[in-house]
Amino acid sequence: MFRATCNTRDFKKVINATSNLVDEICFEVDENGIKASAMDPSHVALVSMEMPKEVFEEYEGDIHDIGIDLEALKKIIARGKGDEKLILDLDVEKNKLNVTFKSNVTRKFSIALYDVSSSNLKVPDIEYPNNVSIKAGAFVEALKDAELVNDHITLKVDEDKFIIYSKGDLNQSETVFDNGIEDDDATLAEFNMGEASRSTFNLAYLKDLTKSTAAEDLLKIYLGSDMPVKIEYEVSGSKLVFLLAPRIES
Amino acid sequence: MFRATCNTRDFKKVINATSNLVDEICFEVDENGIKASAMDPSHVALVSMEMPKEVFEEYEGDIHDIGIDLEALKKIIARGKGDEKLILDLDVEKNKLNVTFKSNVTRKFSIALYDVSSSNLKVPDIEYPNNVSIKAGAFVEALKDAELVNDHITLKVDEDKFIIYSKGDLNQSETVFDNGIEDDDATLAEFNMGEASRSTFNLAYLKDLTKSTAAEDLLKIYLGSDMPVKIEYEVSGSKLVFLLAPRIES
Amino acid sequence: MFRATCNTRDFKKVINATSNLVDEICFEVDENGIKASAMDPSHVALVSMEMPKEVFEEYEGDIHDIGIDLEALKKIIARGKGDEKLILDLDVEKNKLNVTFKSNVTRKFSIALYDVSSSNLKVPDIEYPNNVSIKAGAFVEALKDAELVNDHITLKVDEDKFIIYSKGDLNQSETVFDNGIEDDDATLAEFNMGEASRSTFNLAYLKDLTKSTAAEDLLKIYLGSDMPVKIEYEVSGSKLVFLLAPRIES
Questions:
Q1: A156-192 per-position pLDDT tens digit
Q2: How far is A113 from chain B (nearest CA, A)?
Q3: What's the CATH architecture for B130-227?
Q4: Which residues in chain B are contacts of A112 at CB distance < 8 A?
Q5: What is the residue extent of each domain of chain C?
Q6: How many Å apart are CA A52 and CA A59, to the nearest integer?
């Protein structure tokens, strides 16, 4: 059996973040919680999410692989109000996942399961020379700035600065987070630099994988030269990790 | 002659509710107020509205049939601000209806009359086994839930419950209003059940005829098995009635 | 050299107002401030803006002609937040204008200069029989009313009234600002009439040139019979002037 209860707001955040990059996923359920990971269709980005049983109000789970059409689940979850109680409940016999929203009215959706087998994908254990922690709002704004001039951007760590840089045929854009400057907002919350490095990424992917963040969420960004960027953040106890391959400049 | 004054907000609501289903209508005006009824172009739904003279600040009306392009009237009415005074005034000679908004500025529209003759349609006097009163907001949300899985829905009354149900090829949706459960919000304000019954309707029509309701409006819904559904509500003293034919399942 | 600092909000307003009608412009910079004027591509409207050095927090300017793609500049300026500090700074060597937004983060754009030579256009010195001052919000609403019935409108001054009038095949619209009526809001702030007159204009242009006004901005409108209309307004010390040729009715 599998049955879990939580608040709608948190589950919505986790599902939205995951579904921006992948279309279907296999929830690997067991007594400890829900895990899932998947690559985007073009195998450039990897998404991994972990919802330990502690984030649920009630949780009971045997071992199950629950294959889900994320697009359909996202639309259903979007129908829930933030303060409604959300109940997930596997109907093994009918091969369906029931999603129930409970307030003074009971609204129940049944969603057919997909034949998605568990991927056993793991986020590779890479050693990164640099990492920074940054508020998601400021990072997303820098991506929007870069979007005005080109469709790829360069993330640089150099001389006490984290720089988001983009250059088009005519114009260019640059956002500088300077670790040496007093920053009351703690926009750049952490800055750990091993060696100067830079990598270039597809902007659309970076936008997709940060689309569901809230402005105050802290993103932990791991960076090296011509290495995949790793971006981690937490949503009320659930953990999201994204890995994006660099664009190798010819 | 015909000349009537009211506040823009209320008239806007009545016109919007009516114009969601029909394109043209004949306002039957007399000393008691304005009445109109029309069928939608495919003859599946009937709309009827009644604005008694008491809802107007000033009202003077001889007997007139005023044929109106509802789409044009709706756009004009949309230009009025809620707290402006609205004056309707028939220019028999020029065959136009003048619509004037008055605040510190005077804005006057003249709209050409259509050759729509009075339909003398009446809402048929059907005996219904069941009726419920429900807040429009909750009903509209249930329609949106249903929309995720199919384009028609089933309204059921059974065992102290009013159920809105939809089933697609893969997924299904169900909203249950349970008369037996304490409901502080009075979402289900009344529940009068004669016999268990169910009918299926085109979802797009139900959405159209509830599109202009406010969340707190009370809809009175009359329901039987394979019978048209009748939905009534009031807007500041004006009465709106909708009748929608059931979808006969093959 | 040219370097100027101001708040983002004001500069955004001036650039938006200018860029609604023209695509490129030459900023004529000198020690007194920035001036620019341009005609729209179809030579029906003339736009002129003046930002004296007093509107800037800091200002230093030698004589320069700075040709700008207004569409690109508008998009960049749109990325600034209202309360950020904006720094304009000419890089003569690289032939670029740098636009920097400064808050706790520094965001810098470089925009390539265009080869737009100074136009030396002047707003012609026409004597107008009438002028009115009117709140932009009320004027824009009247344009929207007119838009429902036709794509051109007539501005009339007659008998203590300023009238915005439009007539379509079926319907018509008329907004009357009556100088004789007490108007607590001072919507019609001034009314100076020399002789009754009327001119007809393309509605889309009038909408474009008032698109960036705020509801409370005072527009000074100069009007005669079959003459261009001149519309002036101020944005925090900067001056905007628009001239629009009349539509000669055949």
A1: 999 999 999 999 998 999 999 999 887 778 899 999 9
A2: 9
A3: Box (3.70)
A4: 170-171
A5: 2-112, 130-244
A6: 10
- Chain B's closest residue to A105, CA to CA, is B177
Please state the rounded mean pLDDT for residues B163-191: 91
- The verdict on a CB contact (< 8 Å) between C142 and B107 is yes
Distance from CA of B74 to the nearest CA of C (A): 11
Contact C109 A142 (CB under 8 A): no
Q: Which of B171, B177, B178 sits opposite A72 (nearest CB)?
A: B171
Cβ contacts of B174 on chain A, cutoff 8 Å: 107-109
Query: What one-character DSSP code corresponds to residue B111?
Result: E
Query: Number of residue pairs across A and B with CB atoms under 8 Å?
Result: 49
Write the residue in B141, B173, B183 that is nearest to A109 by C-beta: B173
CATH number of this structure's domain A130-244, picked from the four choices 3.40.50.720, 3.90.1150.10, 3.70.10.10, 1.10.10.60: 3.70.10.10
Report the candidate in A57, A63, A64 with the shortest Cα–Cα distance to residue A10: A57
Which pLDDT belongs to residue C249? 65
Q: What is the pLDDT of residue A180?
A: 86
* Residue A150 per-residue DSSP state: -
A–C interface: beta-carbon pairs under 8 A = 49
From B79, B104, B112, residue closest to C187, measured CB to CB: B104
CB contact under 8 A, A111 and B178: no
A2-112 and A130-244, same CATH topology: no
Contact A176 C75 (CB under 8 A): no
User: What is the least distance, in Å, from the CA of B66 to any CA of chain C?
Assistant: 15
Name the residue in chain B with its Cα closest to that of C167. Answer: B110
Contact A137, A215 (CB under 8 A): yes
pLDDT tens digits, one per residue of B180-233: 887 778 899 999 999 999 999 999 999 999 999 999 999 999 999 999 999 999
CATH 3.40.630.30 assigned to domain A2-112? The reply is: no
Interface residue of C147, C171, C174, C183 to substitute, partner B, most B CBs within 10 Å: C171
Q: What is the mean pLDDT of each run of 10 residues along chain A (250 residues)?
A: 94 93 93 95 94 97 95 95 92 96 92 82 91 96 96 95 95 94 85 95 95 94 96 94 87
Please report the pLDDT score of residue A185 as a whole number.
80
